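User: Show me a protein chain along with its predicted structure.
Assistant: Here is one chain, sequence first, then structure tokens.
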Amino acid sequence: MSRTMMASQHRWIYIGSIVLLVAMVVIGLLTYTQQKQTNEAARKAGQLADELTAQGYPHPDEGQIARTLGTDGGAVCENPSGALKTALQKVNMSNGAAGPGQRPIISNARTVEAEAIVLNVYCPEELVEFNQKVDDYKTAKTVENP
């Protein structure tokens, strides 16, 4: 076997090695970016859990918060004072009946307070407008804290 014949046979090994190396670099970069986002989500989830606990709420599962809200607050921060979210809040603060029997109630103030804490951690720029919307709600201390 001549030297050039052997070099041409090994060329495919070199090309395969280079392709494999490039693929590993791309996978490494994607994994690094994902881990950075995961660390940020865990940090914000820990901050939210601490703030909720400081306000007297039970300590939530930080892993579940991180998976649900991520780094940007997810669905909670998508127009929290918009018409749809306001309507859903009002439906949730009713007597639970359906149709003509459904009536608004004086809801516990802590239900609105918890969402304000979430907004404060994940999207503080939305908090002022949210507070202006919920100031119109009739809330009171209706349930004793454990």
